Amino acid sequence: MPITSKVDRLNNLTTFIVTGEFSADLVVSVLKPLYEDPDHQPTLNILWDLREIDRAAAIKDEDLRKIVTYKSIYNTKRVGGKTAIVARSDFEFYFSKKYELFTQLKGISVTIEVFRSLGEAMIWLGIS
Fold first, then answer.
1. What is the C-alpha to C-alpha distance for residues 44 and 31, in angstroms, rounded to an integer?
2. What Cα–Cα distance (Å) separates residue 80 from each residue in 3, 17, 55?
3. What is the pTM of this model?
4. Residue 66: left if φ>0, alpha if ψ -120 to 50, beta else—which one?
5. How many CB atoms lie within 10 A of CB 70?
6. How far apart are CA 126 and CA 30, in angstroms?
7. What does CATH list as the number for 3-125?
8. Residue ranges of the domains in the chain?
9. CB atoms < 10 A from the CB of 82, how many?
10. SS3 string of 20-63?
11. Cβ(76)–Cβ(112) under 8 Å?
């Protein structure tokens, strides 16, 4: 699967690693267990690692809007949470900043920051 995840309950962190293609449907499919399982409380901290994303992927505004719309349904599940996105190339950085803007416009209650390195993202999340 092009998106894998791991949960670190000690640090209240879920990490998603994208290693191939990117689509809104893939993202929503990995978020569903996080948000829709009544026996599972989502972590406050989430890290999206896009360093290995398929750069040939055509990510459209429509994809970002679909993800933001899905997340808005579960907005109250991570109030006060933080999402860090690690984007090495300009391509990933650009669409990640656009996603950050879309979430702000939709009123999502999570703080999102985009970083160029994993270390910076972990520091911002408060994880050493």
1. 14
2. 25, 23, 31
3. 0.91
4. alpha
5. 15
6. 24
7. 3.30.750.24
8. 3-125
9. 20
10. CCCCHHHHHHHHHHHHHCCCCCCCCEEEEECCCCCCCCCCCHHH
11. no
Query: What is the identity of the amino acid at 88?
Result: R
Checking DSSP bridges between strand 111-115 and strand 82-86, what pairing results, if any? parallel
Per-residue confidence (pLDDT) for residue 57, from 0 to 100: 63
> What separation in angstroms does the CA of 41 have from each of 22, 61, 71, 96?
25, 29, 15, 25
Q: Which amino acid is at 37?
A: D
Residue 51 CA to its chain's centroid (Å)? 13
SS3 107: coil
Which of 34, 6, 7, 2 has the alpha carbon at shortest distance from 19? 2
Q: Which two tokens stand for residue 41?
A: 């409380």
The amino acid sitting at 46 is: I
> Is 105's pLDDT higher than 70?
yes
Count CB atoms within 10 A of the CB of residue 46: 23
Looking up tokens 């933080």 gives 82
Chain segment 46-102, per-residue pLDDT in tens:
999 999 887 656 678 899 999 999 999 998 889 999 999 999 888 889 989 999 999
Tell me which amino acid residue 119 is.
Answer: G
